[in-house]
Write a structure and sequence with these properties.
Elements lengths: L1 E4 L5 H12 L3 E6 L7 H4 L4 E5 L16 E4 L11 H16 L6 E7 L8 H13 L5 E7 L2 E2 L4 H12 L2 E5 L5 E2 L2 E2 H10 L9 E5 L5 E2 H12 L4 E5 L4 H11 L4 H11 L10 H5 L6 H13 L32 E8 L3 H9 L11 H13 L20 E2 L2 E7 L4 E6 L5 E10 L2 E10 L1 H27 L3
Parallel strand pairs: 1-2, 1-4, 2-3, 4-5, 5-6, 6-11, 7-10, 8-13
Antiparallel strand pairs: 9-12, 14-19, 15-16, 16-17, 17-18, 18-19
Length: 473
């Protein structure tokens, strides 16, 4: 089948694309930025990539001969306060583009919406579902609750909490019930529903075999990890205080923390149906899902992460708009060193940040990360998805990867920390010389004052960093 897939660089779609390719489907992959095509599918002959921004679809051209489409656009972690309007706008534009084609089925991944008092996020999911309904194609909706898998927002947040806090004083919403579902089962539902006419114009709740509270999920997660954890829940933490608690304890953004807290106050219990028999799936239990997720992590084989979504940080534009570093009106710290072992230096560059640290004065980097968190930034806790691999669009602590090419020996990062201006950090090897360049374009007087305030630390941090990139310990 010829399938249109949206959200190609997102957590779900990126994994689903690989599963559909195994089944020999032809994919038309929608991306907002052609510089962010996932490496694992970029050269696949069954994939075609088209540039589509569903908020600005004027120039979009969807092929007429598609058989089906997946709508996997999600704005939960966006920094925008009007994400409900944005989600509806995307859905309406998608519908207008797909209706004139030969598409027979649209498959949409939504959230379980059975509680009487839905969160803002879940209300938006339901509104999108209603918007996508059409007389031109059949809509199949799968409604999932908490998704458990390496790189998923819920998994990484629970991981942060469990591994950092032996004793937890937590909000009362930890007693809310839910039915977690493994990412592998989500993908099997999405792929298995393709082309099944008995699923046309129907919606199904998909969920795991257990009903658990968030507290039980934390404790079972700890059991899988071999950790002893103690949890006390308090009824006094307001949603706003709970959001701040989640924000400072975990690697999530405040916007996502607020959205999650809003959703976690609502019970997410699915309605039974025969969908498991139709698609022939027996969803795995929560502990098995956690264990499998850690197998992927230990193999350094995490395909996608919520942190790599552009909306997880402060980046708003397409990556290509920032690849050219400005030359004028900027402050610069430029250093270069002779490279004695090019392979070693490239591996060090590609391993920078995350658990590996920044190779020099890591304490100062951590302080800068804490300061960023205090002022509402992303901080250092996002880390990186892979310890050894980088591609355009990846999150890297409080940076975003703009360009990464080992063949060209160049890595370019853009700062997503809270700054009175814009900052770039570039590494490239030219004729046996490593060029390390930090560029800051200030905004107003505060930007200039900021640069001079941190200037004394540059000699320590940037000089130590470039030395560690070329000299073996």
């Amino acid at each position: 089948m010829k399938i249109l897939i949206t959200g190609t660089t997102g957590y779900i779609a990126r994994r689903l694309a690989l599963q559909l390719l195994k089944d020999k489907h032809e994919l038309i992959c929608c991306v907002r930025d052609l510089n962010r095509i996932p490496d694992e599918i970029e050269d696949n002959p069954l994939c075609t990539f088209i540039k589509v921004d569903f908020l600005k679809p004027e120039d979009a051209e969807i092929p007429d001969d598609i058989d089906a489409a997946y709508y996997l656009i999600h704005s939960m972690s966006t920094s925008s306060d009007d994400f409900v309007d944005l989600e509806l706008q995307c859905a309406e534009n998608f519908k207008k583009l797909v209706e004139p084609t030969h598409c027979k089925q649209v498959i949409y991944l939504s959230g379980i919406v059975n509680d009487e008092s839905l969160s803002k996020h879940l209300k938006s999911r339901l509104q999108v579902e209603n918007t996508l309904k059409s007389d031109s194609y059949a809509l199949t909706t799968f409604r999932a609750g908490i998704i458990v898998g390496s790189g998923s927002a819920s998994f990484e947040i629970i991981r942060d909490i469990v591994e950092k806090l032996p004793f937890m004083i937590t909000p009362k919403w930890l007693n809310t019930k839910t039915q977690p579902l493994a990412i592998r089962d989500v993908l099997n539902f999405l792929a298995g529903g393709l082309g099944k006419e008995e699923l046309y114009n129907k919606a199904y709740d998909i969920f795991g075999p257990e009903v658990l509270t968030y507290k039980e999920m934390l404790l079972q997660f700890a059991e899988v990890r071999g950790l002893k954890r103690y949890i006390v829940t308090l009824p006094v933490l307001t949603p706003k205080l709970s959001s701040y608690w989640l924000y400072f304890v975990t690697s999530t953004s405040f916007q996502l923390a607020a959205a999650l807290v809003d959703s976690m106050t609502v019970e997410v219990i699915g309605k039974p149906s025969n969908i498991n028999e139709i698609i022939d799936i027996e969803p795995m239990d929560y502990k098995t899902a956690v264990d499998l997720a850690f197998q992927r992590i230990e193999q350094n084989a995490v395909i996608s992460s919520w942190k790599d979504a552009v909306s997880s940080g402060r980046f708003k534009d397409q990556l290509s708009k920032h690849i050219e570093i400005p030359q004028f009106g900027c402050f610069k710290d430029e250093r270069q060193k002779t490279v004695t072992d090019e392979a070693y230096t490239l591996d060090r560059i590609w391993g920078i940040g995350g658990r590996n640290g920044w190779y020099s004065f890591n304490g100062l980097w951590k302080v800068r990360g804490y300061m960023d968190k205090l002022f509402g930034g992303v901080g250092l806790r996002r880390g990186r998805t892979s310890d050894t691999y980088l591609e355009a669009g990846d999150a890297l602590d409080f940076w975003r990867v703009l360009y990464a090419s080992k063949e060209e020996k160049r890595l370019l990062l853009f700062a997503e920390m809270r700054l009175p201006g814009e900052a770039w950090l570039e590494f490239k090897i030219v004729k046996g010389q490593l060029h390390q360049r930090a560029v800051f374009r200030p905004k107003g007087i505060w930007g200039r004052l900021y640069w001079y305030a941190v200037l004394p630390f540059h000699a320590l941090v940037f000089n130590g960093m470039i030395n560690s990139l070329v000299h073996k310990n």
